[in-house]
Design a protein that fits this description.
Elements: H1 3-21, E1 27-28, E2 31-32, H2 38-44, E3 60-75, E4 80-92, E5 103-106, E6 119-120, E7 124-129, E8 137-142, E9 146-158, E10 170-179, E11 187-191, E12 198-199, E13 209-223, E14 226-239, H3 242-259, H4 270-291, H5 304-351, H6 370-392, H7 397-413, H8 419-446
């Protein structure tokens, strides 16, 4: 009875060995010995993919090169860009040396048999390896033990942007490559051919940007767990401003010019001038809201396009206020004329027609000016006030003084000719807008 458990254990051990070897030989992960070529069988014999090359020795030198296939999208809202890249890594593994001068191009699925670097993109938000029609991976082993490992990756990578000069801005984005677990004592990264290790950026055609320049650098990533190798690709993007000129700058400028049309419309045409002012203000507000839809909703940037739209809105709103001021001055001027007519009528009724010819002008621009007329009127009315004071024992002297003070106050606050406001606005508004535009474009394009 004691032998039964022993036989059971021996049976399980034999079964596990047969499962490991299989019917045809030894297994290598998912691959059977009979499925591998004799050269690969020899290379894989005794190979441990969990140990890096030169284990307990010097660090493994891994050369990197990139091909930028495309930059699909650049988002100012999320501050990132999406790129498809071909990443190629080279390193030497002395355990894979074989005789001859040939190279072995292996199926990408054999990568599970080899040690590969744990390279990752630290700023990546989302990424995936293409798998149509098979996993887009390449493994090539050279006779001196050099291994070439290539991948096709699409990644969405963060890019910190300064939108102060948007849309005349220039952004510098990076693509970083680091080792996840192996520090500088284990692996060392380097660019295989310096700046020439990166291909494809010169031929990229982007919707809103153009690639100005790029360069590569080698640095270290310092974390709490140690120092890790890092390679960085820096590339500069300049935004094409022509699209924004046609979409935003030209319409907003035309709206400002349209608001100036009211300066040539008669002040008596209240509905026409009010309609132009209100319409341009509302249209400008809609344009400002539309220009912000493609930008972050909450940020601390005062962008160049916001400054220009604010300038245009100020001039449009100023044109509306100009009509309000001109209309108010016109009404004040008309009130003064009506008061003068009433005073002349009272003077005519009390003293006859003897001196009416001296002050019959009802418009200040013909003959004497407004101030002179008021002085003459005051002097003419004064005797009437004195007579009334003597007859009514001073009851109406206070009333006459109040009228005199009120007339002088109104004359000081009024404009002699309200139509001059429109005449001056026709020159001042365009000149001021032109001057502001010169300073605006000089600052954002050359500073």
């Amino acid at each position: 009875m004691m032998l039964i458990p022993l036989f059971i254990c021996l049976g399980l051990l034999v079964t596990s060995v047969n499962c490991e070897k299989g019917i045809h030989g030894i297994h290598f992960g998912e691959w059977n010995e009979s499925q591998l070529q004799p050269t690969i069988q020899k290379l894989m014999k005794g190979y441990n993919r969990y140990l890096r090359p030169n284990f307990n020795g010097g660090p493994v030198e891994i050369g990197m090169s990139l091909d930028i296939a495309s930059i699909d999208a650049i988002s100012e809202i999320n501050m990132d860009y999406t790129a498809t890249i071909f990443l190629r890594q080279r390193w030497r593994d002395s355990r894979l040396i074989f005789p001859g001068n040939e190279s072995l191009s292996l199926d990408g699925r054999l990568v599970s048999l080899l040690w590969i670097p744990d390279t990752f993109i630290p700023d990546s938000k989302r990424s995936f390896l293409h798998d149509v029609t098979v996993d887009n991976r390449l493994i090539r082993i050279f006779s001196n033990g050099t291994v070439l490992y290539a991948l096709r990756i699409t990644a969405t990578i963060a890019c910190n942007m300064d939108l102060t000069k948007y849309p005349m801005d220039r952004q510098v984005c990076t693509l970083q490559l680091e080792s996840w677990g192996y520090n500088l004592q284990d692996v060392v990264f380097y660019w295989t051919r310096g700046n020439d290790s990166v291909k494809g950026l010169d031929t990229l055609r982007l919707a809103q940007y153009s690639v100005e320049s790029y360069y590569t650098s080698v640095s270290e990533a310092v974390y709490e767990t140690g120092c890790y190798p890092k390679l960085v690709l820096h590339f500069s993007l300049r935004r094409n401003v022509l699209f924004f000129i046609l979409e935003t700058y030209v319409p907003s400028t035309l709206l400002v010019v349209l608001s100036w049309v009211s300066f040539w419309i008669s002040q008596s045409s209240v509905p026409a001038r009010t309609c132009i002012g209100v319409t341009t203000v509302l249209t400008m507000t809609t344009l400002m809201m539309g220009a912000r839809t493609s930008l972050p909703n909450a940020n601390c940037f005062i962008k160049a396009i916001d400054v220009y739209l604010g300038i245009c809105f100020t001039f449009i709103f100023g044109a509306l206020l100009e009509y309000a001021c001109a209309h108010f001055c016109t009404m004040q001027h008309q009130t003064i004329i009506d008061v003068q007519r009433e005073l002349l009528k009272e003077f005519d009724e009390s003293n006859g027609n003897g001196s009416i010819q001296l002050v019959t002008s009802t418009t200040p621009n013909k003959g004497l000016n407004q101030e002179t007329q008021e002085e003459m009127t005051d002097q003419s009315v004064q005797p009437e006030g004195d007579e009334q004071t003597e007859k009514k024992q001073g009851n109406s002297c206070g009333l006459s003084s109040v009228k005199q003070v009120s007339r002088r106050a109104v004359s000081m606050m009024s404009v002699e000719n309200p139509h001059n406001i429109d005449r001056h606005a026709r020159t001042l508004f365009p000149m001021a807008f032109l001057l502001v535009n010169i300073f605006y474009w000089l600052y954002y394009l050359f500073i």
